[in-house]
């Protein structure tokens, strides 16, 4: 039709995202053909159950349970099944046959990205995964292409919508952690296994991908330091607000110099304080945002929907159109870039400032004792506030803000505080991020 050649597109999986990709491919066929210069011909959709109910009405003859057969002969394979092993095998098979692959599978890319990128490079195929990080938000392509001539120094991301939703409810509506979690669950925001969201595993997968691309290196997912939001309390949220901060679950990728002079990368996920003036503080509900700091470009922010079937389908189709254009023009796909080969530095090498909440004995000399413990470990207090004196009788609550300190020094300080006779409890230690 219209003299366009056909490019054979095989779709693996027809769930929330896959069904929307199929619908858009069919509905927008003519326009996509005009944009690409070839017709994106959906040859089939691999499903587990031919008769399962779908979000979208799609021609039944497209469905097949034979994913392996479908992949054979495809020009572009779009993997939207999720899971690791079957997806990995099918993608490797597709790449080895020279097909381009588009996937939204963050777990797979975080675990096997380098292997898949190598397989793609061997045959000059394109492996694209814009939808794997922050759903609809263009962030992979900007990092890989638009910022390819710059030096990125730091990436701070709110890349998990469900935990952002939970923390935002606690902050804005005063919900308890349990209530906020229940609402998030009712709205279907959480993964089938909510631990993946709540304990930061999903964000860690995205941190791996962001750190690897931003710093042209390989950051294994196991090397990402990870804390989730299950320990965040209403008292911490309240204390943060009082001090002009908000608590966000951040995925951070940063170029750092270690104490011994080694340059490396830190990749970490934890709930952190950020100033209410920081652009990331305005990311509410289930939205995602990625804040990028680059030497020449300065500060950039990418904001939008990090999940949702049709929203995520937008990113998938963007990759699909890009892969299809390559087929029309010819030439190899853009290979992954890991030439910098940087080491991943442990959390102890990170320097940031901290907010420590303590319950102490309300006695003369206590402040001096605590100041002495901080000084002994090279941690300098920027502020000390006695917020309430209404805990157990004879105790006071202290909130200490520190100057920028090394995590290792801070950890030793917290251990010393816990062991001190004047401290009855260390109730909170939070890092403050987003500053200079
Ligand atoms: N839903 C989102 O908002 C979102 C956002 C970003 C990324 N992703 C990623 O996109 C991918 C798809 O997510 P989803 O939300 O559409 O999942 P989903 O569970 O709704 O759909 C996956 C579908 O694939 C099918 N499937 C699984 N294994 C199969 C196999 N071996 N053969 C054929 N079909 C198989 C399942 O039956 C299911 O229908 C995942 O990797 C997910 O992490 C999803
Ligand atoms: N569970 C993820 C889905 C998108 O990857 C989230 O909450 O953001
Ligand atoms: Na994205």
TrEMBL record:
Coiled coil: none annotated. Its cofactor is a metal cation. The keyword Repressor does not apply. Its EC number is 1.1.1.3. InterPro entries: ACT_dom, Asp/hSer_DH_NAD-bd, HDH, HDH_cat. Pathway: Amino-acid biosynthesis; L-threonine biosynthesis; L-threonine from L-aspartate: step 3/5; Amino-acid biosynthesis; L-methionine biosynthesis via de novo pathway; L-homoserine from L-aspartate: step 3/3. GO terms for biological process: methionine biosynthetic process; threonine biosynthetic process. One of its GO terms (molecular function) is homoserine dehydrogenase activity. Residues 355-434 form the ACT domain. Keywords: Amino-acid biosynthesis, Methionine biosynthesis, Oxidoreductase, Sodium, Threonine biosynthesis. Pfam families: ACT (PF01842), Homoserine_dh (PF00742), NAD_binding_3 (PF03447). It catalyses: L-homoserine + NAD(+) = L-aspartate 4-semialdehyde + NADH + H(+); L-homoserine + NADP(+) = L-aspartate 4-semialdehyde + NADPH + H(+). Transmembrane segments: none annotated. PANTHER family: HOMOSERINE DEHYDROGENASE (PTHR43331). Belongs to the homoserine dehydrogenase family. Catalyzes the conversion of L-aspartate-beta-semialdehyde (L-Asa) to L-homoserine (L-Hse), the third step in the biosynthesis of threonine and methionine from aspartate. NCBIfam families: PRK06349.1. This is Homoserine dehydrogenase. It comes from Leucobacter soli.
């Amino acid at each position: 039709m219209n003299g366009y050649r056909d490019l054979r597109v095989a779709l693996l999986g027809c769930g929330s995202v896959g069904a929307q990709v199929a619908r858009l491919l069919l509905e927008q066929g003519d326009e996509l053909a005009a944009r690409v210069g070839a017709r994106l011909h959906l040859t089939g959709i691999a499903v587990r159950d031919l008769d399962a109910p779908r979000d979208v009405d799609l021609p039944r003859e497209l469905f097949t349970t034979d994913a392996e057969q479908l992949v054979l002969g495809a020009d572009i394979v779009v993997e939207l099944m999720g899971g690791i092993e079957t997806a990995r095998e099918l993608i490797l098979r597709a790449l080895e046959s020279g097909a381009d692959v588009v996937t939204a599978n963050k777990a797979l890319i975080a675990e096997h990205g380098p292997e898949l990128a190598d397989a793609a490079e061997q045959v000059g195929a394109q492996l694209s995964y814009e939808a794997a990080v922050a759903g609809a938000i263009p962030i992979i392509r900007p990092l890989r292409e638009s910022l390819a001539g710059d030096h990125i120094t730091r990436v701070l991301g709110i890349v998990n919508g469900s935990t952002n939703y939970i923390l935002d409810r606690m902050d804005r509506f005063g919900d308890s952690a349990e209530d906020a979690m229940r609402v998030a669950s009712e709205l279907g925001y959480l993964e089938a296994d909510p631990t993946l969201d709540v304990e930061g595993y999903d964000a860690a997968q995205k941190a791996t991908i962001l750190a690897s691309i931003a710093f042209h290196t390989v950051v294994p997912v196991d090397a990402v330091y990870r804390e989730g939001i299950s320990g965040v309390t209403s008292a911490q949220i309240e204390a943060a607000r009082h001090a002009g901060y908000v608590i966000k679950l951040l995925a951070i990728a940063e170029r750092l110099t270690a104490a011994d002079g080694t340059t490396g990368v830190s990749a970490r996920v934890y709930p952190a304080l950020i100033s209410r003036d920081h652009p990331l503080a305005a990311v509410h509900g289930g939205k995602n945002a990625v804040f990028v700091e680059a030497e020449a470009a300065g500060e950039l922010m990418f904001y939008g929907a990090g999940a949702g079937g049709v929203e995520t389908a937008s990113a998938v189709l963007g990759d699909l159109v890009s892969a299809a254009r390559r087929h029309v023009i010819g030439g190899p796909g853009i290979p992954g870039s890991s030439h910098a080969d940087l080491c991943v530095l442990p959390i102890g090498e990170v320097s940031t400032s901290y907010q420590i909440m303590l319950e102490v004995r309300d006695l003369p000399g206590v402040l001096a004792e605590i100041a002495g413990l901080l000084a002994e470990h090279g941690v300098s207090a920027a502020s000390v506030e006695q917020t309430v004196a209404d805990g157990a009788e004879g105790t006071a609550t202290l909130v200490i803000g520190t100057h920028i300190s090394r995590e290792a020094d801070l950890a030793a300080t917290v251990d010393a505080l816990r062991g001190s006779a004047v401290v009855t409890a260390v109730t909170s230690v939070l890092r403050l991020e987003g500053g200079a």
